[in-house]
Amino acid sequence: MPAGERSWWGWGNTAEALTAEESDALVARTAAVLPGHDFTDHGPPRPSDLDVPPSRLDPPAALAALCGDDVADRLSHARGKAFRDVVRNLLGRAEHVPDLVARPRSEQDVVDLLDWCSSSGTPVIPYGGGSSVVGGVEPRFEGPAVSMDLAGLDAVLEVDTVSRAARIQAGIFGPALEDRLRPLGLTLRHFPQSFAHSTLGGWLATRAGGHFATLATHIDDLTESMRVVTPAGISESRRLPGSGAGPSPDRMFLGSEGTLGVITEAWMRLQDRPVWQVTASITFESQEDAIAATRAIAQSGLHPSNCRLLDPAEAFINAGASVGGGLLLVGFESADHPVDIWLDRALELAAGHGGVVKTRRSKDSARPDGDSASTWRSSFLRMPYQRDALARRSLIVETFETACTWEGFEEFHHTITSAARAAIDEVCGGAGVVTCRFTHVYPDGPAPYYGIYAAGRWGSTVGQRDEIKAAVSEAIAGHGGTITHHHAVGRDHRPWYDRQRPDPFAAALTAAKTALDPAGILNPGVLIR
Amino acid sequence: MPAGERSWWGWGNTAEALTAEESDALVARTAAVLPGHDFTDHGPPRPSDLDVPPSRLDPPAALAALCGDDVADRLSHARGKAFRDVVRNLLGRAEHVPDLVARPRSEQDVVDLLDWCSSSGTPVIPYGGGSSVVGGVEPRFEGPAVSMDLAGLDAVLEVDTVSRAARIQAGIFGPALEDRLRPLGLTLRHFPQSFAHSTLGGWLATRAGGHFATLATHIDDLTESMRVVTPAGISESRRLPGSGAGPSPDRMFLGSEGTLGVITEAWMRLQDRPVWQVTASITFESQEDAIAATRAIAQSGLHPSNCRLLDPAEAFINAGASVGGGLLLVGFESADHPVDIWLDRALELAAGHGGVVKTRRSKDSARPDGDSASTWRSSFLRMPYQRDALARRSLIVETFETACTWEGFEEFHHTITSAARAAIDEVCGGAGVVTCRFTHVYPDGPAPYYGIYAAGRWGSTVGQRDEIKAAVSEAIAGHGGTITHHHAVGRDHRPWYDRQRPDPFAAALTAAKTALDPAGILNPGVLIR
């Protein structure tokens, strides 16, 4: 678990939430964009004031010590940390609270808990850090449910420094993992925005994307082998740097979101901690040029560690920069060699498309804890806390992320932003902003990440958000995008996932689910049934 | 189809087989290593002299025009091009000949053929270039069979030059594909040893590995989306540069070896044709140093396009070099920038482990057709033809490939080479050589590729080879390796694949197979049933 007290209603830890001064400043900035909005602060209720029904489950005696029905604990496992989760918490809506929180201390505990749930037909939701923003951990169904919190399985069991890999239990949180690897000069180098509040098992189950823009940033590619407890037995793949022996077993469990089994441990590929780091920021007058430059870098084979293109709204709100066409943040890092020449070439490519270098910076020491000092990176990690401060003040703050081809981006982007703006017009009377950045870039296309800031009405913002989200999701699903690039499917993306997924694959996955989870207890409603 | 007449019994095209002079020279070189061996040449029989039973299948009238039962055609589809296939051809053993060869001209033909096979319960084997070296295309079972040759689906349907991707039919052969892409300055840059004699669909179905040592070389990573005809319907994934929407549909079909459906087309990621290329060869006195240097380069983040370590026997036989510890071939290439500085750093790393640079070469023009002028690369593409010349002369020439961690390599390698040598002692009275090279290197481990040259007895070399192969496969399976890194599973690797594959995954894959192929007609005996 990360240090500090976890917020039961909002993102992360209470100690890291915005201070009163920060909130005031944020409100002032936002009010400039959304004049006339009612910024009244609606703080969270006390958990003890909520009307939580008593647990309907009675675990067998042998498992009783692993299970708890404390109301505050159940409440904190009732949902993830999406905007709609946070607002429902603020409103004191206590629906879909799991009946028990089970905390296995060993893999055998996981086996025993699944055996009990299978034989009793009790739904069980594997729970890592609970930072899902897609309804992935919420028992959004009738009847009882167990939330299985894996945080007790948090050991680094073995480190192979020669092959640079470690066998790691799935319940470990990001900071604890990096703390264990740092003395060895190694890092998993996987830094999703939720890094401090999510676990290895959660990253694997949801195909998490890290902070870096290219190459080894997706958890899929960092995975050497996995161990998964399914109701039909334990699946363990071999430690292999590469294999062509049939369809990849790991790729079936990666992204299975708790529906096929409980990931208990994995051998993960590690990297040497970076020593050389260079970054630059580049501005563009036209959006077209900014995109062309970003594409050129993505297709150059230079493999920048950072290659984030912020549109003018995003650049203004989160990086404090006024730009006409876009702000491109490019960075390179290495544990082996200086990378200035890499950056030189990337800047050449940008200049060929009218890019003007605004800042360029080198660092000769390793990045502390994967964090960085840049305004934007700090802002990046603070964004969810800012979202919570605005959610308390009736703002609708939501994100949508997807991926598409470079060729299709312009039309796709126009369709999505038009749908978002039309929905904001419809639902919020037009008071809102839509921002866009590329979080990851591939040779064949970008992963655009949209932010929405809109003026809602207190008590209605969940419904307003749902309408906007549905409109945007329709646009994404109808125009060839993916309903999620790295946030996962969960329950919130399910209708559009079903349209995106090829029908024969749905049939195959359903059959696989039935083989591994014949009682259908694992995370019902997600992906499959 | 590649130019020239296809050999019915041996590798590739008859025009490319060894000349009499080349055969004589090869025999002389080999005789120096294996004195006393009987090098009598046993040429192939005429197909018309073989005792091939008549076809047992009568296709429906609507499909008759797509199907043929010509004996020579059926014979040439009866097996792949493994050593044991070639020798059985030389011996005139005509077992397991498919009853019909079906040649669909459109995707609808594929649908119709599968419908007929499903309703009649007739096994069907999807057939690309037929270059399988693992028994992947052989109807090794009782009862009739259809070989579905996809070579008629050979069009490049669309090219997206902005996103650098193309929609390509699965039956296209390597050279034809590159011919289509070359005028656009693009390349798939996928060059397996079988490049000229295998198809896109075959590469996808078997998770083929290309020539390059790191990064984008496996067909899996070059795949943007796939279209697959299954008996349960057509599965088409979206063109997405990245996605986190559930387990990847493509990753289920990649490596499915014709058991889940027939791949008809795919959107493939392309690259600009390389302009800058630099290569070097480095020698080492000790094997330990050679491995340490190779690992340092693999873990450096330099991403060489080539990083092949040949052991002394491999270096002598295929590169004509006498080295004490190993010969490392390193290369870099780019379409965007000069890569000398990359090579400089790789050579520094090698020098740190005692490596001595023997040659260094730059090329300023694009590689013609993915081929290169180096001795070793030419030798690489000629190896299967040399194998056939030796097979005719009672030699056992076989390869085994796998992957393991760096930490485990030394013991693993010792175990495998010991098993191979013991088997050669047992089966061939000790007359044989075992070679090793790394074909691909990963940050967490190498992919070692073993060659065996042993003196057999004419008429017994298949059985002798099978005994050696079984001994080596036992060693691989028993010591944590993969039974195949890029040759696929087929029928020859099946017993060890079953041990390697996690049981729950086997259950899931079997259930998926039943959902997609309820009649169980697709490539029976491979992977699943």
UniProtKB/TrEMBL annotation, chains A, B:
One GO term (biological process): lipid biosynthetic process
SUPFAM superfamilies per the UniProt record, alphabetical: FAD-binding/transporter-associated domain-like, FAD-linked oxidases, C-terminal domain
Limits of the FAD-binding PCMH-type domain: 94-273
One MF term in the entry's GO annotations: FAD binding
Membrane-spanning segments: none
Sites where the protein binds substrate: R387
Source organism superkingdom: Bacteria
Pfam families (UniProt xref): FAD-oxidase_C (PF02913), FAD_binding_4 (PF01565)
Binding residue positions for FAD: P126, Y127, G128, G129, G130, S131, S132, E257, G258, T259, L260, G261, V262, I263
InterPro entries (alphabetical): Alkyl-DHAP_Synthase, FAD-bd_oxidored_4_C, FAD-bd_PCMH, FAD-bd_PCMH-like_sf, FAD-bd_PCMH_sub2, FAD-linked_Oxase-like_C, Oxid_FAD_bind_N
Cofactor(s), by name: FAD
Site (Important for enzyme activity): R308
Keywords attached to this entry: FAD, Flavoprotein, Transferase
Entry EC number(s): 2.5.1.26
Active site positions, chain numbering: Y449 (proton donor/acceptor)
Entry keyword Lipid metabolism: no
Family of the protein in this entry: Belongs to the FAD-binding oxidoreductase/transferase type 4 family.
Identification of the protein by name: Alkyldihydroxyacetonephosphate synthase
Organism this protein belongs to: Amycolatopsis umgeniensis
